[in-house]
Specification:
Layout (H helix, E strand, L loop, with lengths): L1 E5 L8 H14 L4 E5 L5 H5 L11 H7 L8 E2 L5 E4 L5 H7 L9 H8 L6 E5 L6 H9 L2 E7 L8 H14 L5 E8 L6 H14 L12 H5 L7 H4 L4 H13 L5 H9 L5 H11 L1
Parallel strand pairs: 1-5, 1-6, 2-4, 2-5, 6-7
Antiparallel strand pairs: 3-4
Helix pairs in contact: 1-11, 5-6
The structure holds adenosine-5'-triphosphate (ATP) and magnesium ion.
Adenosine-5'-triphosphate binds next to α1 and α9.
């Protein structure tokens, strides 16, 4: 079982969008995948179509009340994709766990005790470096850091890397940076090009070759409770999340690399038209 946390304490950088869609493509490629929503905002939960009002057991009950983790696992519309939902109760967990022994290890322990086998566990972290994220970082093998192609993209990354080092030294010596994912890119702008350059300088070959463009379809999909492969499988956003999932799986060809560069500046409409023409 390979565990990957999607983590960046900065808000709105596409952690949840990436968690949902990478988990979905892993599942569609036949990998049994568990998406864990570790954010009280519960956007990953609703993003895979789970109605928050129908949740009986959430990650809160797993972390706080030690319920059996299996009780919280829910099926989704995608056959091999399951989810452990979150809800607003989780807001209290940061405070409620403060005086609890082994509070940083709650998620790790629950996953160790899990009897249902999964190939992949994808953990969507909240935008903070508090106890919930620490639980995620302690439980995981590696992290993917999404970075939005915007002003101040690198802001806070030194702090994140410092936290990763602290966790590695004290709580989880296996913790690795799996990769860095550039998101919401508009390849036509100078700013995006600058950010890509800066991030590549900072993280070197950890940066995925696939860059996620800013597209309307990716914004719309969560509103319908659907991952992008169900909402619009031929969209550019869908293709890019499939590509990065292939990179994670170690399936990556040079031709795809060229294609990524070629795609620069293509709009969703252009891409849709081309896909339509090919079909
Ligand atoms: N490639 C994209 N193109 C367009 N919109 C996007 C893209 N990726 C994410 N978004 C939108 O940007 C917003 C923030 O994305 P998301 O919720 O995934 O970020 P996050 O890092 O999980 O946020 P938070 O820190 O609040 O948890 C959402 O409205 C999402 O739909
Ligand atoms: Mg989020």
């Amino acid at each position: 079982m390979r565990k990957i946390a999607i983590c960046n304490q900065k808000g709105g950088v596409a952690k949840t969008t990436s968690a949902i869609n990478i988990a979905s493509y892993l599942a569609l490629k036949g990998k049994k995948t568990l998406l864990i929503d570790l954010d009280p905002q519960a956007n990953a939960t609703s993003g895979v179509g789970v109605d928050k009002r129908t949740i009986q057991h959430s990650i809160y009950n797993v972390l706080h009340e030690h319920i059996n983790i299996e009780q919280a696992i829910r099926d989704t519309e995608i056959e091999y994709l399951s989810v452990i939902p979150s809800n607003i109760n989780l807001t209290g967990a940061e405070v409620e766990l403060v005086n609890v022994m082994g509070r940083e290890y709650r998620l790790k322990k629950a996953l160790n005790e899990m009897k249902v086998p999964f190939d992949y566990v994808i953990i969507d972290c909240p935008p903070s470096l508090g106890l919930l994220t620490i639980n995620g970082l302690t439980a995981t093998d590696s992290i993917i850091i999404p970075i939005q192609c915007e002003y101040y993209a690198l802001e806070g990354l030194a702090q994140l890397m410092n936290t990763v080092k602290l966790i590695r030294d004290n709580l989880n010596d296996r913790l690795q940076v799996e990769g860095v994912l550039l998101t919401m890119a508009d390849q036509r702008t100078k700013l995006t090009k600058e950010v890509i350059g800066e991030v590549q300088k900072f993280f070197g070959n950890k940066v995925y070759k696939t860059i996620i463009p800013r597209t309307i379809k990716l914004t719309e999909a969560p509103g319908f409770g659907k991952p992008i492969p169900l909402y619009d499988p031929t969209s550019l956003g869908a293709k890019k999340y499939e590509d990065v999932t292939n990179e994670i799986l170690g399936i990556y060809s040079e031709s795809k690399n060229e294609e990524t560069t070629e795609d620069t500046g293509k709009t969703e409409e252009q891409h849709g038209k081309e896909v339509g023409e090919r079909a």
